[in-house]
Amino acid sequence: MRPGDALLLDAPGDALPLPQFTVVVTGIFRPVDGTDDYWAADPLILAPARAPTGDGGLRRLATALVAEDGYGALTGAFAGAGAPPPSSRPEVSGALTHAWRFVWDADRLQAADAAVLTAAVGRVQTAGTALAPFPVRVSTGLADLLDTHARAVAVTRSLDSVAYAGIAALAVLSMSLTVLVGTSQRRDRLRLVRARGASLTQVSLLLAAQTLAWVVPGAVVALVVAWVLVPDGGSPVPLLLAAATVVLPLLVVPWAVRAETRALHGPPARGRLHPAARLAPELAVLALTVLGVLALRRRGLAQAGQGGVDPYAALVPTLVALAVGLVVLRLYPYPIRWAASALARGSGLTAFLGTARAARARPASALPLLVLLLAVALSVFAGTVLSTVTGEQSRAAWRAVGADLRVDDPALTAEQVAALEAAAGVTAVVPAYRDAAGSVGPLRPVTVLGADPAAFASLLAGTPLTVDLPDLGGGGGRDDPLPAAVSTAVRADAALGTAGRLIRLDPRAAVPALQRGATAGEVLVLVPLADLAAVTGGGVEPTAVLVDLDGALGGGAGGDGRAGDPGADGNAESRVEALLGPSASRDVTSREEVRAAVADAPLPAHLRRAYGGTVVLAAGYSVVSVALLLALGAAERRAAISRLRTMGMRARDVRRLPAWEVLPLTVAALLPGVAVGLALPALLGPALDLAPFTGGPAEPPLRPDPLVTVALCLLVAGAAAIAVVLDAARGRRANLSSALRIGDQS
Question: Torsion angle, CA of 13/18/21/24, rounded to 10 degrees?
């Protein structure tokens, strides 16, 4: 096309009946930046395209720009041609649609602006004639986008709250255990202060002040670093969690001081504390857990009408783990005593001694068990969420594309199909006809897919869209009914509406597996492409190509990077364009790019970081809890080991003793922790919808991955092993004579 060319224009078949008229091309323009979002609203401005007509043919579509002073001539061409009457202004034609487009800058939009923008869009949509003296129709996809964003943010906050509550509980338990260890190591000094007349309150305040002197500076530094790295917008939640982590463990100080100085005042009077009173806290935790589970399944995690998260509901998964931990603690002594008695009959000393010491462990050893159990439960739950999101992202990408690569073009030629088939990295090519506006009897819209059934099934074998198709042979005649596989049952005499025709259908079978490649509620009809072309007299040509890849199209990294080499650019559209040439009517969709676009979006990426960090922190707290457990009984263990060494115990057996002390506790925490982690998705499933992170249908089921679960269990067990190794390394430096004097009274 050149300046001076005359074009004869007519209206599309589905538009108003307008006369043909001629326009003269006065100039050709080229965009400064063809990739700018401005051009996305109407791609035909940059290049013409061909579109199918109702009778199976093709028509050319293009968008032309008219100068302002040519507007009168354009409206005059519509005069007297059956166009709607003009508006109150005579220079405005009723046959034209006048549009004003407002572009928003997504880069400047922040989460805090979403509510303001939602309210503004709502006011514009309901303004009606208040916007102008003539009828105005407002069209925007921004409202749905903002609603989707709001739901996604709400789900993200819910998932975050579960992880943060669990990590905060781990921190509180670990800090409490640290207080107990510190109190135990100060036992002699505390007894001396108490013997000189200090009250329990005075000693507790002194110890709490010493603890705060070490903890508060570290907490302040951590908060400052966190606020610098992740600005929270003024939310008080991080400050409250930090304060709880520092303050709650101090409540253990009076109990720890009383336990360590009890020898000065003798044992407590018998009958002072009724057994039911000792059970009261545990029963309270169990009651809170049951009530929380019931409320969570009924109301969800969000606070009604406030857009936030219910703190009590967010604590329910943690309460479930703690409640199971309390039950395990009640049952824990019985199998340990049985194991110790069984090992006593064996010839080995280390296993028996370690198990016996574990059975006689202090009450404070309950905290490491709770930490390990909660860490395992959180890790397994986080792994289930991440594996579900990853799997659903992959399935959604397969559902959206239907192959590794799909090329849609109504003007597709046989030469282009052959070029794709011959390209490096391509293992299979399936030409297909696709009509998303078809019908089967009263069902509409129906997606009609014409392809070779055997090639189509082979392409999808081993993918989430795997399908077993019935025999679709026997057609092929112009007057024969068209054999078809349908995703849902249809009448045997139903007619297929596609390509502007009604075609007799021969539904061979209902194949629900076809629904995997369609959206919810969509009906998909698969027919042999050759038979469809024969029935329509050659009026149907392939409009899409499904491509199976082995690597990247054009050779991927193996490309030499030359201009025109499809392997020189990582973008699938540019690779196809380099292979087939440019086309404005072509749409290239890559399964991997669709998956990556969802996975790399801000909210899914945040979820991946948050729950990956949860797993790492859980493993870290496991190391800390086991190390503190070993430190809690380190003095008694070193004294026992030193005496055993003087009686001939080998150093190799000595190094194994801490492992045997920790092993029963680790096993007792690992198995129930895995059970809790696998049960949490069933408890939280109705309250969570991972669809905002997957790009797929709503409320996908949470599927635990066995390999991920085993790997996370090994991670926590490995963390406990690291703590044992560190304790053993510290024990090697202990002096035998000094260890023998530990605990001696002067």
Answer: -70
| pLDDT under 50: residue ranges of the chain | 80-88, 90, 269, 271, 557-569, 739, 743, 745-746
**pLDDT score at 564:** 36
Pick from 567, 590, 613: which residue ends a domain?
590
Residue 569 and residue 556: Cα distance in Å, rounded? 8
- Write the pLDDT tens digit of every residue in 312-349: 888 888 999 999 988 888 887 777 777 777 776 666 66
Pull the structure tokens for residue 688: 């969570």
Token pair listed for 164: 């943060």
Q: Is 364 in contact with 632 (CB distance < 8 Å)?
A: yes
Query: Is residue 89 in a domain?
Result: no
Neighbours of 241 (CB within 10 A): 17
The sign of the dihedral angle between the CA atoms of 228, 233, 239, 240 is negative
Shared domain for 534 and 513, answered yes or no, is: yes
Same domain? 152 vs 284: yes
Whether the CB-CB separation of 416 and 580 falls below 8 Å is answered with: yes
255: amino acid identity, one letter: W
User: How far is 513 from 486, CA to CA, in rounded Å?
Assistant: 10
Does a structural domain hold residue 87?
no
Q: Which helix (H) or strand (E) holds 439?
A: strand 426-440
Is 664 domain-assigned?
A: yes
Return the pLDDT at 431.
92
Separation CA 705–CA 687 (nearest Å): 21
Tokens in use for 704? 């635990």
Beta bridge partners of 302: 309
Per-residue confidence (pLDDT) for residue 442, from 0 to 100: 79
- pLDDT computed for residue 626 by the predictor: 80
Which residues, 6+ apart, have CB-to-CB distance to 446 below 8 Å?
A: 438, 439, 440, 497, 522, 523, 524, 525
362 shares its domain with 454: no
Output the pLDDT for position 535: 84
- Categorise residue 12: left if φ over 0, alpha if ψ from -120 to 50, beta otherwise: beta
Termini Cα distance of the chain: 108
Given this model, what pLDDT does residue 86 score? 45
Angle at 164 between CA 161 and CA 166, to 5 degrees: 110
Residues 237, 227: Cα–Cα separation, whole Å:
12
Other Cβ atoms within 10 Å of 721 Cβ, number: 17
| Neighbour count for residue 244 (Cβ, 10 Å) | 15
Where among 590, 622, 650 does a domain terminate? Answer: 590
Where do runs of H (alpha helix) occur along 25-141? 71-78, 114-125
pTM of the entire structure? Answer: 0.77
Q: How far is CA 251 from the centre of its chain?
A: 38
Question: DSSP assignment, residue 718?
Answer: H
Residues 6+ apart with CB under 8 A from 402: 460, 465, 517, 546
CA–centroid distance for 375 within its chain: 20
